[in-house]
Amino acid sequence: MRSPSIYSQDDPLSEALKPPESETEAEREARLEQEAEAKRVSEQIDEELRLERESMKKKRGDVKLLLLGQAESGKSTLQRQFQLMYKPHSLEQERASWRTVIYFNVVRSIKHILNTLESWDDYVDDDVAFDSPISKYMGASRSGTSSPVITNLPSENDRAHSRSASPFQGNAETSRSNIASLRRRLSPLIGTDAALADRLSGGITVSGSGKGGVFVRSGWQARTIENPLGRRRGRNPDELSAKKPDDIHDALVQDVSHMLDASKDDIRELWAHATVKELIAKRRLKLDEWSEFFLRHISRVAASDYVPSTDDILHARIQTMGVAEHVFDVNIHGKSVSWHLFDVGGARGQRHTWVPYFDDANAIIFVAPVSAFDQVIFEDPRTNRIDDSLQLFTQICSSPLLKNAHLVLFLNKTDLLRSKLDNGLRVKKYITSFGERMNDYETVVQYFRAHFLQVHRRNNENRRVLYTHFTSVVDTKATQRIIGNVRDSIFRGYLQSAALV
Ligand SMILES: Nc1nc2c(ncn2[C@@H]2O[C@H](COP(=O)(O)OP(=O)(O)O)[C@@H](O)[C@H]2O)c(=O)[nH]1
Ligand SMILES: [Mg+2]
């Protein structure tokens, strides 16, 4: 009997893969050639992966920098700033892939707005205060009993009042039918949500550890290009860069692009709708910062020839799964040193994946969003985000594995903090220990900074220095200056510890 193929006879799969008895000699030859080609490609991929792993491997003398912080704090955006600074070519290669993410962000935002409008009628006031343990950090009593900080639960009267102030009052019927027809017209666009999510995540979903449910692993950019072409693409960076966005005919992305172009006016109308505006003002509709950003720029984003700008890429949101490593060559004083940057998933369900990376880390940038004083974490709607950041920072400061790491704190999203305060949001409402202090930017940032410094002081056996920066990591110019600054300070410590001086 002739050997059927390269598959082993013992392999239980062989039976299923056995060629048909009626196979002709020519067919057999073609099949064997195809199998040999598949094997060659598979081996080549394995070899490329091995080389990639090899080149990524940290060598003695390399710098290992971890970006830590809760979900949505700005770690991946900061990583993109590093990329822009030290490997701009690679960001160029990814530019087309970001279109998929941004479309996904837009589609999700519209869906969220329409869902919120729908639930308005049977709306239950969810703007209730949470029983935050923040008092543990924010001026709690020494006994450690953390009483609920926020007591201003809306009364039945308030709720009745907020109902009577419904934006559907007045021209209610017109408004309703207006929104109903927008909903109808936008429904095909909303319908692409699942397919876009699937394209980005490659079918992986992780339940319970993040709000979008869509996570990407490192290398996702290649997937947004390889799938539509029906073959592996993007392993070779030159192959990727040779493809201009226009050359990549991804049917799904093209479809969404056409729908967006056709729905531009509807999206603008929805975004400018009095009811939507009022729901936002009343904080019944809470939009993420990237939603607002892309909706504000919808004319540009929905244009059929849209190519994401660098600013768009910095504002796009996609959740990181696990730990993604990025390697940059950093030149300093005429010396090139490889920096390994580790960007982690920040949701609570992801934090256990960090620990194996703590070993031999040279430096940490802890990113804490100071604008988040009025937000809770997705994983636990009773935990205020600043409180979660402080708890997490306590763990990082006190971790014995990290005791020799250079420690940098980014108090991030200062631009958003400023606009929240300008819009009259009062810190005291969410953090009662803030008390009667002035509700201005300077007072608020210094107040938060003091709490982080206190956590550091209380968990600082090694007497290490904490370097703090007020940041807005979407601001390229300012962030690059700070990165330069951080690089110099990390490098000074690194030279000392590596005794390279
Ligand atoms: N306006 C503003 N947006 C920010 C800032 N930092 C991050 N973002 C946005 O917040 C979202 C979450 O950031 P990301 O880097 O993905 O957070 P990660 O979960 O810590 O990686 C993205 O849409 C970012 O563009 C900031 O300083 N200012
Ligand atoms: Mg991230």
From TrEMBL:
SMART domains: G_alpha. Residues 18-39 have a biased composition (Basic and acidic residues). The keyword Transport does not apply. InterPro entries: Gprotein_alpha_su, GproteinA_insert, P-loop_NTPase. Pfam families: G-alpha. One of its GO terms (molecular function) is GTPase activity. GTP binds at residues 314-320, 412-415. GO terms for biological process: adenylate cyclase-modulating G protein-coupled receptor signaling pathway. It comes from the Eukaryota. Mg(2+) binds at residue 320. Residues 142-155, 163-176 have a biased composition (Polar residues). Keywords: GTP-binding, Magnesium, Metal-binding, Nucleotide-binding, Transducer. Residues 1-39, 140-176 are annotated as: Disordered. GO terms for cellular component: cytoplasm; heterotrimeric G-protein complex. Gene3D superfamilies: P-loop containing nucleotide triphosphate hydrolases. The keyword RNA-binding does not apply. This is Guanine nucleotide-binding protein. The lineage of its organism: Eukaryota, Fungi, Dikarya, Basidiomycota, Agaricomycotina.
